[in-house]
Design brief:
mainly alpha, about 5% strand
């Protein structure tokens, strides 16, 4: 294959993945209908009220792997084979969970193996925190541990926000677009190609996942998206070069790390908050409930589409604040985006609390009054 200019490769990977995803998903929906492969609303936590195919992640994975294999130049990403291996592990784990349901321990083991291959063998890891929390260069083993834990956390963060129509996909498109642009202007053509390929695959899926969704991505898609985006974020931080074109947008390594984290901040903040509150209540951090940000927005009466729009705009606002604060101390930048996130959450929390109190009050008032009566085993006796 002749050497193509990077911008053409980015376009080809995006368009190729988009077309493959758009063509594949109707076929997956047809097979799901014939084989009765659906996500059934069998508990109070699930929001949808009808059976929906949940294998959209198969199309995302197929489109991503195919276009990257065709257009990604091995010279621009020599460790691509390890990314494929880790992706396959997560793909098989996700599809098994979507079809027969795996235990959390088995899913965690698969995530640990995939993250370990990426960090230990492909050597894709964070080697410095660039002054955040006063930490600069990490020793080899601290770098390994921090990177493996970080990748696993981001994988689960994207899995947890996949709770309403279009949310995980929309956050995925925003993240891959931002990271793709940053990697491209940093000179990391391989990482940028991966980003735009995944962006195209998710964009094609969103055509069928916006409310009312006709298909879900399932764990097959959520695990894949979280994994690749975590890898892209590490690649961007490690690729930072102030002499490249990215230096016009990101001015220093600490700013690169802060901006990279801000791109992931909505899913990461939501997951960290939910895990913390569950542990404080003495329950498992993996116990499902309705305390995610999207649940709060739905409780306020917003539709799925409005909820997705609000969270996307919040993520864009956080990225903008990170860009504004990047020239200050990295700790100040992190403090700024954390304070903004906590402020937005506090407003949402009290609005929801007030609405739920009003709803409960109306329910109490609407209960039929039975006056000053006594109830016995045989019936109701009035004084």
């Amino acid at each position: 294959m002749p050497q193509l200019p990077p911008h053409l490769i980015y376009l080809l990977t995006f368009m190729g993945a988009l077309v493959i995803s758009l063509v594949s998903i109707p076929q997956i929906m047809l097979i799901s209908a014939k084989k009765r492969l659906f996500d059934v609303p069998d508990n109070d936590r699930k929001i949808h009220l009808r059976i929906v195919p949940n294998l959209g992640g198969v199309a995302i994975f197929f489109a991503f792997i195919t276009t990257c294999s065709l257009f990604l130049n091995p010279d621009s990403f020599s460790n691509w084979n390890y990314i494929i291996a880790s992706s396959l592990i997560l793909f098989l784990t996700g599809i098994m969970d979507d079809l027969v349901a795996l235990s959390p321990s088995k899913k965690f083991l698969a995530q640990f193996i995939a993250a370990s291959i990426t960090v230990c063998i492909a050597d894709i890891r964070l080697s410095s925190l660039h002054g955040i929390f006063g930490v600069y260069d990490l020793t080899y083993w601290y770098s390994i541990i921090f990177s493996v834990v970080g990748i696993i956390f981001v994988i689960n963060a994207f899995n947890l926000i996949d709770g309403i129509d279009g949310l995980a996909g929309s956050i995925g498109v925003l993240s891959t677009f931002c990271l793709g642009v940053l990697l491209a202007v940093s000179g990391n053509a391989g990482g940028a190609s991966m980003a735009f390929s995944l962006m195209g695959a998710i964009a094609g899926f969103l055509r069928f996942n916006t409310s009312p969704a006709r298909i879900f991505m399932g764990d097959t898609g959520a695990l894949q998206i979280g994994y690749i985006i975590s890898v892209l974020c590490i690649l961007f931080v490690n690729s930072f070069n102030s002499n490249a074109a990215v230096g016009d947008m990101i001015h220093n390594p600490g700013g690169a790390l802060t901006v990279g984290l801000s791109i992931l901040f909505v899913p990461v903040f939501d997951s960290f908050r939910v895990f913390t509150t569950r542990l404080m209540r003495g329950v498992s951090p993996f116990k499902a409930d309705r305390t995610h940000l999207h649940h709060y927005l739905l409780d306020l009466g917003f539709t799925h589409s409005m909820t997705v729009t609000i969270l996307i705009l919040s993520n864009v606002l956080i990225i903008t604040v990170a860009l504004i604060l990047q020239d200050f101390n990295p700790n100040l930048g992190m403090l700024g985006i954390v304070a903004l996130s906590m402020g937005l959450y506090a407003v949402l929390y009290f609005m929801r609390k007030k609405r739920m109190e009003s709803i409960n009050l109306l329910k109490e008032k609407s209960k039929p009054a039975i006056g000053n009566s006594k109830v016995s085993a045989t019936g109701i006796y009035h004084n």
